[in-house]
Amino acid sequence: MSATDTYHHGDLRRALLDTALVLIGKKGVAGLSLREVAAGVGVSHAAPYHHFADKTALIHALGNEGMELLDAHMASAEKAAGDDPRARLLGIGMAYVAFAVQHPEYYATFSSPEMQTPPSAKEAAASDRTPGGTWVRLFNAVLACQASGDLPAGDPMVLAVYLWSLVHGLAELWRAGPLEQLPQASEGLEALAIQVLNAALGAMHTTEGSQG
Amino acid sequence: MSATDTYHHGDLRRALLDTALVLIGKKGVAGLSLREVAAGVGVSHAAPYHHFADKTALIHALGNEGMELLDAHMASAEKAAGDDPRARLLGIGMAYVAFAVQHPEYYATFSSPEMQTPPSAKEAAASDRTPGGTWVRLFNAVLACQASGDLPAGDPMVLAVYLWSLVHGLAELWRAGPLEQLPQASEGLEALAIQVLNAALGAMHTTEGSQG
DNA sequence: TGCGGCATCTTGACAGTGGTAAGTTGTCAG
DNA sequence: CTGACAACTTACCACTGTCAAGATGCCGCA
Q1: Residue B70 · residue B115 · CB < 8 Å
Q2: Which structural domains are found in chain B, ordered by start?
Q3: In this predicted structure, what is the pLDDT of residue B204?
């Protein structure tokens, strides 16, 4: 590490983010200690404040990184699914769930209380508090499915919220653990998720079901 | 308050739980301070340790209370829905979402990191870490719907996980706020939730859609 | 009535945390 | 070579959870 042994670290910001991420993986975002992060990098406990205004700011930075990573995963999953709108939508949903499982440290930042509160007004402009890209991607996929007849012609907003809730809840239940306590689930959680998503999508294929 | 002004508080445990609940409502469970709770009750900062082994233990106690309350809400909603299995299932789902909105302090404890980790082995026996009652109730409602033909004959586990994920995700998205940023949603989030749940239930009425 | 035991509560201390202020060190333009 | 400036350190503050030891009031027993 050429830049690590000098007085000026070189890229301390990046190093802080990285070790913060592994610490979050171990103790969760609630148990994250800025001093421990600093010590892990080998730097004094006040050094992080020259790169992040706050502990919250660091978590926000990680959260935004995670959002971008998630959107990239979704984009590639959508692309890999080919041209079938239904397959693309399924790919997006599974990418969401899979991301939560494969990158629990990043995913943990999404639902952390620090991420719920908007950041400083300045930072708010640069970052998307609502996972805007993710939401737009999902919404467009729903519209495409409706256009092709793979989803009913109801309010796309309702359908999008429905699907978002589903994958979010699935990811949450999966991550939090209660799913593992179901006997059948332990065989293959991913298979169960695909089954559930397929059931949801396939079920809506033939009927509307909205009463509003 | 007759018992509050004596040296022995009378029911300090209850008082601690109550003011902890309102503090969680204000600052979230992550921002809960045991000392602040004690000060709010008008007692020294070490007093809580005679009623709770830990800060975690207090949160666990609140979480268990919330679970019981949630199950009670679900039970009454199920009862109020009458005999139609589908209406009962919808009632259960809406009760879950409504509980998260009407009792955000209790609901916050459910997904808190303190609640994710099992409590001391002794307490674990008395409390149900997985919301057992809730899950059983949902599962039975799914079985009833399948028996009456209101839900397809697929694996009830898949259906139950599907519905659980849906209401959990809906509650989470609702509570966390992103739903409010959708233009249409702000008109009536509850109506949207009912719409989504109805769409989910109604859609599954006619087809199976499982490929497993 | 008085006395001892005991749960309850208080005081005081400890380590660890986020955050700020002032000083130190290195780098780089002029 | 020198000054300015960013990066980093040291020292400190208020606050937190937690523990140990002492004070306080209640209750049963004589």
Answers
A1: no
A2: 1-52 (1.10.10), 67-211 (1.10.357.10)
A3: 55
